[in-house]
Amino acid sequence: MNELLGFSTQIMAEQPQTPARGSGVMQIGLLVAILGIGVLLTALTSDVSKVSEPGVKLVNGQLFLVDKVADWTGGELQGLSDQEKKILPADTEGARRLFTDKEGHEVFCSIVLAGRDVTSIHRPELCLPGQGWTIQNEQVQQVPVATAHGGILDVMRINATRSIPLANGETGRYRAIFVYWFVGKNRTTPYHWQRIFWTSLDRVFYNTNHRWAYILISMPNIDAVGSVEETMKIISGFVQDIYPTLIARQPTH
Asked: What residues contact residue 167 under an 8 Å CB cut-off, 6+ apart?
């Protein structure tokens, strides 16, 4: 996909200590097992007849992405690109805008909503490298959002860099921050494996395909803002402003 914390005084979280080798292998094995079982169960229940309501807001049956919220004004509403339409299932929907505040800060917001086919949704870690981004690190962070379940929204944060040619023939570098999370019917999660797990349970036990949405928010040039800390503060504030306009109902998980 294209064109994305509990915010505290220390935005850049300390890097976790390297776990023992055995522990790391066990964690990787467990994750692979969960994903493998999820994929298998999904494949074995390909004849699911029901489709859940989406957890994101629809207006007249179409994805809704507000054109103005708080101090942010959105640009032209765009859908899926021609390239995305070629590779994604036909019933996939998309909406995106570039938002600008009164100080000139720009934040990109994108929503992709799956139809019946679970392949409509995937993690940005799979497509960002193809767009020239190098992922430096990723971590789950919490954003205080009053309207989220428990007043906290967990998001996956990615710090990435991208090389760019300069006019003088040298090579420069963009630094960017992306945050994303998945939204289902009464559910939100920053974890791909948890989305797959819930999808499998719904298909096996409720004969229902869970219609997930994927929300991505990004600021693609940290240096234009000034610092990582300031960039995270802006993104956090934007998430707090726009979250209530995106969600169809309160998550319960």
From this structure: none
Q: Using CA atoms, how far apart are residues 160 and 34, in angstroms rounded to an integer?
A: 27
Tell me: the pLDDT tens digits for 79-133? Answer: 998 888 888 888 899 999 999 999 999 999 999 998 877 777 878 888 888 888 9
48-57 pLDDT, tens digit each: 667 668 889 9
Q: What is the DSSP string of 94-132?
A: EEEEEEE-TT--EEEEEEEE--S-GGG---GGGTTGGGT
For residue 20, the SS3 value is: coil
Q: Which residues pair with 153 in a beta bridge?
A: 143
In the chain, what are the domain boundaries?
21-246
What b/e string do you get for 140-155 counting C-beta neighbours within 10 Å, with b at 16 or more?
A: ebbbebeebeeeebbb
Note the pTM of the prediction, 2 decimals.
0.77
Amino acid at 208: T
| Residue 204, token pair as written in the block | 């096996």
Tell me the CB-side half-sphere exposure of residue 75, using CA atoms within 13 A. 14
